[in-house]
Design goal:
Chain A is an alpha+beta fold. Chain A has helices spanning 2-12, 35-51, 88-96, 128-138, 143-157, 172-183, 202-216, 228-234, 252-267, 292-295, and strands at residues 18-31, 60-73, 77-81, 103-108, 112-115, 190-194, 220-224, 237-242, 245-250, 288-289, 304-307, 316-317, 322-331, 336-337, 339-341, 345-354, 361-369, 374-379, 396-404, 411-422, 427-441. The chains are: A alpha+beta, B mainly alpha.
């Protein structure tokens, strides 16, 4: 029967393009109050059964993971988000094979290299050199292969004279460097990274990111992070785990937004509504100025940015103590814009209606690119820190942000706006609209980076 | 290697694992040997000096102070007792070293269980290898002493590896059992010290079997050390051939225990990560 099932399954889904397949994965831990309970659990049920008495359990069951199923195709990069204790690490450990599932199946195709927590699998007493050999051997390299790659690994890790010191003397950064250097050189098919990269310094992070991006072209990556921004920028899809269950699976942007909403909600109690009722439409623009006219004869590399109207139906969440009515982009003369040009001064204006009394409201925004990476943003907190603009129910507040729009590489952009009450560190989100406004940069002179800044001068000349 | 498949329990799988990881075993075992004397001025030389000093102490205490006689006839001279005693102690030391460390092998290497897919079944083998090294040095010292005292070496010395092989096999099997058991029942590491001490006194190490009252003989003969210690003395000291058929039977049983231990280890290792 089993053989037949397997045959059918193999016929139905070719496993050629699957790197990881997880079906109904469950892990429960038995928690014992005392070590002797573990022994009792081992013997007593058998004894009671033998005596014909009913069963008794000496442990509490804790389900770290419950019925999780998903598939990762070869070459995909999947991000896993979730709060502490949501089962991320348990899942990864089972995929790596260091933890056995209680129920369900894990299937992996290809060599797995994992960076679980700090200095995975290093023996603290051994020197860095010995650990490199040991780790690489365990990951499946032969002695000769390690010999061949040793210099590269050391060059990548760049830990200098510490190579021959015991690993216990390493800083956490050095440990990660070495561990990452090893797994980067074992020709893995599947790479599993458990938020370990946060430890290294900026240079090393860059190096790791370069490697990761290169690896992603061919390999499969499973990436765990609390940092939704890096999940959004690196991954091709994302998974959200909560209390051991898979809540959402899909594009990184969607998953991360939902995750973030839930995160805020959990922090500030239940949200009155996730999609707030629309109060009234903001007054229609009196005079729309099209700046294109002024620049119509300029070069074709001019950074034209097409602007779309405020989307009051965009996904939003918050406690509902205040509501964002509208968002506008104006030029320096307060003319409403439908088109902006990178480098120009613009006013970003937010209208808020107060449903409750707010003692120190903060209004903020950030601009994201299509991967959801935040490019820049700001809020009113610092400016009004000392004399908060307190307001009572029924008041309307307006916030203006005047800034030079940077040059944006061609692509789509969105602006998220939020109104909160409190301080930068501790506040209650009253209304957060994910993509309140979106605009498009058509053509751009930006050659590299996420944003360009207007250059004051660019010179090149021969030195004599 | 598929980390999700059930752990193989066949001897073939064991052989394969040992072969593919031979460099790893070699490295780790050598490390363990060196580690012990790390930082000392004499370094590895201590593994040689230690047995020499021990032998000198035994010779003085038993042969000079106690004037102890083993009772092997006229050929017995002053140092015979010390050599005979030493041979027994070496073999017990070999067994005790592995036994005492086995319950903690997995516990002390939690990293290998939880963070990487490590061939855990090799840990007892590595432990055995380093104990064998120390044992080999001690036997070398014994042989040198024997040459100095008697002026010659019996030709049967060459059989000693064949005598120790069955014991090594048995010890390895027990090490697998103890290593896995030690993870789940932490009391094992406390008990094992007592058990090995009892094994020392319930074996003909300090006295010949004949010195023991008849009614205790079954206990002593049941000790797996007894037979091997006596055979080792035959080849190392008395220059007689070992009991070949006895060794063959012993080897067969040891092999069975080793396989059992390996299977037990492989079956239980899935639970290691849950407990550590």
């Amino acid at each position: 029967m089993f053989g037949f099932k397997k045959l059918v399954r193999d016929l139905l889904m070719s496993s050629d393009d699957i790197a990881i397949r997880i079906q109904g994965l469950t892990k429960s831990f038995q928690i014992y109050n005392a070590p002797q309970d573990r022994l009792k659990q081992f013997f007593m049920p058998r004894l009671l059964k033998f005596l014909g008495k009913s069963d008794r359990r000496y442990y509490k069951e804790f389900k770290a993971l419950e019925g999780v199923s998903f598939e990762v195709k070869k070459g995909e990069t999947v991000g896993i988000v979730g709060r502490n204790g949501s089962g991320k690490s348990t899942l990864l450990q089972m995929i790596c094979g260091t933890l056995a599932p209680t129920d369900g199946q894990v299937e992996t195709h290809g060599r797995i290299a994992a960076l679980l927590e700090l200095g995975s699998g290093f023996n603290p007493e051994f020197s860095g050199r010995e650990n490199v050999y040991m780790n690489a051997t365990v990951l499946g390299l032969s002695q000769e292969e390690v010999d061949d790659r040793f210099d590269e690994i050391i060059y990548f890790a760049d830990i200098g004279d510490f190579l021959d010191q015991p690993v216990k003397t390493y800083s956490s950064g050095m440990m990660v460097r070495l561990a990452f250097a090893v797994i980067a050189h074992v020709n893995a098919d599947i790479l599993i990274v458990d938020e370990a990269l946060a430890v290294g310094d900026a240079f090393f992070s860059q190096k790791c990111m370069r490697f990761l991006r290169e690896f992603m072209k061919t390999g499969t990556v499973l990436f765990v992070s609390h940092d939704t921004a890096s999940v959004k920028s690196l991954c091709s899809s994302a998974i959200w785990l909560e209390k051991g269950m898979l809540i959402q699976e899909g594009s990184p942007k969607d998953v991360c937004e939902l995750y973030l909403e839930a995160f805020f909600e959990a922090q500030q109690g239940k949200s009155s509504t996730t999609r707030l009722r629309k109060l009234e439409k903001i007054r229609s623009p009196s005079s729309v100025k099209d700046q294109r006219l002024e620049f119509i004869n300029a070069s074709n590399l001019r950074n034209d940015i097409a602007l779309f109207e405020f989307d009051s139906d965009a996904a939003s969440f918050g406690k509902g103590g205040a509501e964002i009515l509208g968002v506008q982009l104006l030029d320096g003369f307060e003319h409403l814009l439908t088109w902006i040009v990178g480098g120009e001064t613009v006013i970003f204006r937010v209208f808020v209606y107060c449903q409750e009394n707010l003692t120190s409201p903060i209004i903020g925004f950030h601009i994201k690119d299509k991967l959801g990476q935040t490019l820049f943003g700001d809020n009113t907190f610092l400016t009004y820190q000392d004399q908060p603009v307190g307001c009572s129910q029924g008041d309307e507040i307006v916030a203006d942000f005047v800034f030079n729009m940077p040059l944006l590489p061609a692509g789509e952009y969105t602006v998220s706006v939020a109104i909160a009450d409190g301080t930068q560190e501790a506040h209650v989100q009253h209304h957060w609209i994910h993509d309140a406004l979106h605009f498009k940069s058509e053509s751009s002179s930006v050659s590299t980076g996420l944003v360009g800044i207007p250059m004051q001068e660019i010179k090149m000349f021969k030195k004599n | 290697m598929n980390p999700h498949a059930a752990q193989p329990t066949s001897l073939f799988s064991l052989g394969k694992s040992i072969w593919t990881n031979r460099h790893l075993i070699q490295k780790l075992a050598w490390r363990e040997v060196v580690e012990r004397y790390k930082g000392s001025v004499l370094g590895l030389f201590w593994s040689f000096i230690n047995p020499v000093l021990m032998l000198i102490v035994y010779t003085f205490v038993f042969s000079v102070v106690f004037q102890a006689k083993w009772g092997v006839g006229d050929a017995e001279n002053k140092t015979s007792f010390a050599l005979i005693l030493f041979a027994g102690l070496i073999l017990h030391g070999f067994l005790a070293e592995v036994f005492n460390r086995a319950p903690n092998l997995i516990l002390n290497n939690a990293n290998y269980v939880k963070k990487v897919v490590f061939p855990l079944e090799l840990l007892p083998i590595i432990c055995l290898a380093s104990a064998s090294f120390n044992g080999a040095i001690s036997i070398t010292v014994l042989l040198i002493a024997s040459v100095i005292v008697n002026g010659y070496l019996p030709w049967t010395v060459m059989f000693i590896p064949l005598v120790i092989l069955p014991l090594g096999t048995l010890v390895l099997g027990c090490a697998w059992i103890l290593a896995a058991l030690g993870v789940f029942v932490r009391d094992v590491s406390q008990t094992i010290g007592i058990i090995t001490t009892v094994m020392l006194f319930m074996a003909p190490v300090f006295f010949p079997l004949s010195a023991m009252p008849e009614k205790f003989h079954p206990f002593i003969l049941a000790n797996p050390l007894t037979f091997i210690i006596e055979q080792a003395r035959e080849v190392l000291i008395f220059g007689r051939q070992p009991n070949w058929s006895g060794l063959a039977v012993y080897m067969l049983i040891a092999f069975g225990v080793a396989w059992l231990g390996y299977v037990w280890f492989q079956k239980t290792r899935k639970g290691f990560a849950d407990v550590l």
